[in-house]
Amino acid sequence: MPSKEDTLTQTHPVETIRLWNGAVVPRIGLGTWAAGGMMIWPSGPSSYGSVSRDDAIAGIRLAHDLGVRIFDTAAAYGAGNAELILGEALKDKDDAVIVTKCGYIGDPVTRVMEPDDLSPAGIRRGVEGSLTRLGRSSVDAVILHHNELALDLARPIFDTLEAMRAEGLMTCYGWSSDHPRLVSAVADYPGFKVVEHDLNVFDTAPEMLALVEARGLYSLARMPLAMGLLSGKYGRKATLTGTDVRASSVPWLKYFKAGAANEDYLAILEKIAPLLTADDRSMPQGALAWVLGASERTIPIPGFTSAAQIHDNVEAVWQGRLPADAMARLTEIVAGA
Q1: Domain residue extents for the chain
Q2: In this structure, are strands 260-261 and 256-257 parallel, antiparallel, or unpaired?
Q3: How confident is the model at residue 1 (pLDDT cuts 50, 70, 90)?
C-alpha cells in the first residue's frame, strides 16, 4: 500500500478482507472493462471509456504497486483483449487475485463477439480461452456473465464450473447478477462463493447484501461509481458520443441515456455530494467509502482510464468507511428521492 506521505492522512486501519482462498487483501479491486477497448456485438460496436494498451498495462501495474490484489476482467471485455492485457501486466505477480467471467466468447483480433454458447462445451471452451489469454493454469474465480438466465439453463453451467474447479482450473466461481432469487437458487454449489452486482450509493441492493451475508458469499461491487456519475465529472452539459456504451440507449443503462447523465440521479447527487466529500474525501473516495460501509463482505471494483484515478481510488481503503451517521443520512436522502 502507499506510504502515508503518498496518501491523505490515515485516520482508520486499512480496510482488508480475507478471501475465499485465505489471502488477506485490501478491500478494493481494479476493473478492466475500459482497458479492453472496443468489442463488436451483433447490435454494433461498444466500448467503455478509452485507455491505450500501454497505459492500461501501466495502470494495472501501478495498482498492484499500491497494494491492490484483486483484478476483475471478462472474456467479453474487448473480446478478450482485457484478459490479454491483464495477463501481460501481471505475468510476474503470483499474488494477484484474478476474477474473470464466462458466457461470452469473442475474437481479440477482430473484436467480434460470437453468438452465445452456454452449453457445457461452450462454457469449457470459454474458460480455457480465458486461461490461455491470462497466461495462467488456474484463476481465483470465474463468474457467469449473464445477468439474468433461467435456472434450467444456469444449473448446467454451474455443474460445468464445479467440474472444472475439481480439475484445479479455478478456486471458486459465482454469478454476475442483480437477482437475489437466482443467486439463492445456486448458492449451495460447493464452489459458489462470489456475486458481482450493481452496488453504489444510488443502488443499495439490500436484498442481495442480506443474501451475501447469510450465505457467507463475497460481494464484488460493480459500478461502485455509477459508470462515472459518482466521479462528479459529468453534469447536465456532459455529452458522451461514439462507441461509448453510455452514449447508447440499451435497456439496462440507468445512469446515462444517449450520452447524457440521468437527470434523476443528478438531482440526488446534488443533495448527497456534501456528505460524500466531507473529511477531505474526493467524491469518488466518498462513494467507495459508502460501499465499504454497506457490508463487511463488499469489495468495490472501480475501473480506470488514468493513473490519477487509480491513486484516488486506492486512497479510499486508507481513509476507511463513511461514518455511521453519514451512512444513515445518505440512505434517508436516496430513499426519499
Answers
A1: 14-235+282-322
A2: antiparallel
A3: very low
- Alpha-carbon separation of residue 226 from 229, 243, 261 (angstroms): 5, 18, 10
C-alpha–C-alpha distance, residues 280 and 302, integer Å: 20
| pLDDT tens-digit map of 250-308 | 889 999 989 999 999 999 999 999 999 999 999 999 999 999 999 999 999 999 999 99
Mean pLDDT, the chain, whole residue set: 94
pLDDT the model gives residue 132: 98
Please give the pLDDT value at position 231: 93
CATH of domain 14-235+282-322: 3.20.20.100
Q: What is the per-residue pLDDT for 67?
A: 96
Enter the C-alpha cell of residue 202.
444510488
The pLDDT-based confidence of 236 (bands split at 50, 70, 90) is confident
pLDDT score at 4: 37
